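haha ok so turns out i had the wrong file open the whole time. this is the CORRECT one, sorry everyone. sequence first:
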Amino acid sequence: MKHLILVLGLAITLGTKSIFAQQDPQYTFYRYSMNLINPAFAGSSEGAELTLGLRSQWAGVQGAPESQSALFSMPVGANVGLGVSILNDQTFIENQTWVAIDFSYRVKLNEDYMLYFGLKASGNSYSANTTGLVTYGVGQDGTLMDFENRFTPNIGAGVYLKNKDFFLSISAPKLMTPDRLEERNGNAFSSTDRRHVYLSGGYDFKLGKNMNLQASSMLRYVDASPISVDLTSILDFGQRFKVGASYRLDEALSGMFMFDISSGLQIGYAYEAAMENDINNIDNSSHELFMRLTM
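then structure:
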């Protein structure tokens, strides 16, 4: 329990403001999609896992983020894990597809704790519809008209510590910062892809014979942006039905539920309402679907 208090305390201390400029998508079901951001998570489960995600953010905002993800990971041998991450993201005038290969290596610290080190090799196909700037209501800059579509390689790294009730993760999935476009105050600017660093942790509390409380938090740091923090609590009713809530500090409040359809298939849905003053007069809700298959 002291591990969770340390993680949540750090998150609350640093997370006094939310991120204003999102570049990479953020997921309410981050606890179940960890290898999207941390390659060390690949192979940390007992068997192979396939996870699918779909998120539509700020449903009433034209050009708001929409993303789809497909994640697969499995242990290979005693200490090695491999994974594949595919993410398609549409935001503003941008469209990008990110494909990554994950490698992890496990070190057994003792009978209770396992430590995983991960590396991520990825490539990103990035395009920007600069001819559509007027459609989205932003100013045009002639210097942006020659912004070419591109494919850029990247690398990432992460560390993942776990036992049966506790986990701690720190990672940077993209260490390089290639060029991209960015929208600020209704205008388009040439910018760079900012480096994202993620710190997360969680602890499962036993509340009874058939009930657990899964508490977790995620701290997200992006260069030149305020820190964002998610605090999440999920009640597990006998490993068949889960219901929970998540709070992104000063930014959004979410409700979620998950069903265990069978011993190897889980589906979930999350509804998120934004709390920012600059978008509270429109339909600012976000919807997220989640599916995980264990084999």
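Residues 2-14 form the longest helix (13 residues).
again sry for the mixup
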